[in-house]
Fold this sequence. Notes:
It is built from 19 helices and 13 strands. It is an alpha/beta fold.
Amino acid sequence: MNLFSAGVLKLFSLGLGLLLLSGCTTYGTVKNEPYSDNVQNPSYSIKTVLGKQGSGEITLILAFSGGGIRAAALAYGVLEELRDTSIMVDGRYQRILDHIDVISSVSGGSFTSAYYGLNGDRIFTDFERVFLRNDNETKLIRGLFNPLRWFTRSGRTEMVEQYYDDSMFHGASFADLQRSNGPLILINASDLTYGVRFSFTQEYFNLLCSDISSFPIARAVAASSSVPLLFDPVVVENYPGCEIQRVDWLVNGEEASEKGPELAQIVEGLKSYQDKDKRRYVHFVDGGITDNLGLRAIYDLIEVAGGFNGYIKKVVGKPVRRLAIISVNASTDSALDIGLSTKPPTVEETLSAVTDVQLHRYNTATLELIQKSIRRWAAELSSAGSAVKPYFIQVNFRDIEDLQKQQYFNRIPTSYTLTDEQVDQLIAAGHQLLRKNPDYQRFITGLGAPIRRSPSVE
């Protein structure tokens, strides 16, 4: 989630300058609704989405990292590769894409996950046009310079949300996502006060005594990608009136928290929403701050449910034979160029290096946590006569063998606009890195079914 690319710094400088020029105080707009007794349809929840999915033969979870359009394009390439790979199931070929159960995403990766969740295969015909190859940066700057916004009380995030809605989401809410019948989409943000990883599902909105149905998708994506100081936090109201309701998954978490400090900290943060007086409003910022890989949100989901056995029994209710997690990691080693010269690094390079060091250390700890956890989850699900096989598949630029090409990707900034060549290369990398990944190859061959690949990027 390198926050300090040239494009981001440019937007930040412009936004700060305009804020000082206007001299006006902005306030976050609240758009989440309280519980209503008139709700006819079930809200967008983990249980309602996963409970209606098909065969439990495979549990396939994807995690899309942050990293601006770089992350969005790499994730898009991975989705294309999953579309282009089919296996024989029940006498007919089925795409791996159609076996995805969950996509967890933060920041730049949330554009891809949300668009796919809403539109399904339509992503392959228009996502490049509406987002990946769009000059988003120029349009955002134009929005910041719009004099009509200088003297309003709405903040920069409202402008960004409106732009995302106009160009991509067209008024869609979580009720629309519920009707799409796709995989569970976990759009993740960070609670600025307590550092809670917050996923936009009804289970988390229950803690706010709020109904997620009418909440705009564009606003959730804006929260997931809201870089602090560059954009204002997305604000939601923590409504009173439902304190007596026991949230099953949080109760499970209280029991699970006895297993260690990691879970105890998660549960403590979630329980903080019960203090309606001190936590009347919640401010959400970039999800990459607390989980730049989108993987810890998955860990929270499973562990707070009481482990994978509890998750399967309470949410899915179907047996599993193979458990696969694909981590699409678009982080880069942007500070490597500093070592090529005696010239002092620029402010941008210094800030990038500092954030890269912190980011990579935390990412390493996250990857180790998931590597250990997926083996434990598979063991929990296994029985004497049926062993569940785990696969942790990591897609990242470090696996590119050509050092010159690897350096090319490391120089692609965290930006709202990239060149067509950069987008082409990132999409191709998503295809190739997944297809050549040894763990992915073991996963698809281990299914024991004929495999067919459609023509794709070579």
